[in-house]
Amino acid sequence: MSPRRPTKKQRVLVRELREICAEFNLDYENISAYSPTERTAYLEAARDKIVRGQVVIWYTVVDEFLNVEICRYYFGRKRTFPELWRTKRFQAFNYHVIEELHLMQKLRHVRTIRNIPKDVVADIERLNALRNGLAHALFPENLKRTQPKWKGQSIFSLSGLKALQADFMRIAHWFTFD
Fold first, then answer.
1. Which of 61, 150, 169, 51 is nearest to 106 (CA)?
2. Residues 47, 53: Cα–Cα separation, whole Å
3. Which pLDDT value is given to residue 61?
4. Is the entire prediction scored with pTM above 0.85?
5. Rg (CA), the chain
6. How would you write the chain as a 3-class SS string?
7. Distance of CA 150 to the CA centre of its chain
8. What are the CA-CA distances from residue 36 to residues 45, 63, 120 (Å)?
C-alpha cells in the first residue's frame, strides 16, 4: 500500500466530513450547486460557523489550561491525570468544583496561585468576551459591548482570525512552557 493513500479509516472520515459539510451547508467548494441568489448567504453562513467553532475550541483549550493549573495546585504533579482520575477525590473535585466554575472564575483562581503576565490575562479576558458574544448572539455584530472583533479587526476576516490565533499560541506557549 502506498504511503500517500489514505487508510480505510481515513477514507471513512473524509466521507463523513463531506457529508457533515453538505448537511450543515459548509460545503463551500460546491457553491455552484446553490442558487446564484443564495450563494453569498451560504458562504457567509459557512464562514460564520467555521469561525465560531474555532473560537470555541480556543476558548475550551484555555479553559483546560486553567483546569490543569488548578488541579496541579491541589493534587500535585506526582501522579498523572489518568492516575488521578481513578480516585474518587479527584473525580469529586472535577465534578463539583472544576465543572462548576466558569472561565473567569478559574482565571482569578489561577492568578492567586501564580503570576500570569498582564498581556496573557488581558487576552484571556478578551477571548472570554468574544466567545460569549459569539455563543449568545445570532448576530454578534449587533452587540454593543462585545463586537466580534479581535484587537480592532473583524473576527470573520482572515487578518482578525490570524491575530487571534497568534495571541492564542502565545497563551498556549505560556501555559505549556512557563
1. 61
2. 10
3. 98
4. yes
5. 20
6. CCCCCCCHHHHHHHHHHHHHHHHCCCCHHHHHHCCCCCHHHHHHHHHHHHHHHHHHHHHHHHHHHHHHHHHHHHHCCCCCHHHHHCCHHHHHHHHHCHHHCCHHHHHHHHHHHCCCCHHHHHHHHHHHHHHHHHHHCCCHHHCCCCCCEECCEECCCHHHHHHHHHHHHHHHHHHHHC
7. 14
8. 15, 41, 44
98 and 70 Cβ atoms separated by less than 8 Å: yes
For the chain, which residues score pLDDT lower than 50?
none
Q: Where are the domains of the chain?
A: 1-33, 46-177
Number of Cβ within a 10 Å radius of residue 155: 22
**C-alpha cell, 153:** 479587526
User: Residue 149: phi, psi to the nearest 5?
Assistant: -130, 155
Tens of pLDDT along 65-104?
Answer: 999 999 999 999 999 999 999 999 999 999 999 999 999 9
Closest CA to 155 of 140, 170, 174, 137: 140
* Residue 156 confidence (pLDDT): 95
Residues in the chain: 178
Alpha-carbon gap, residue 136 to 88, rounded angstroms: 35
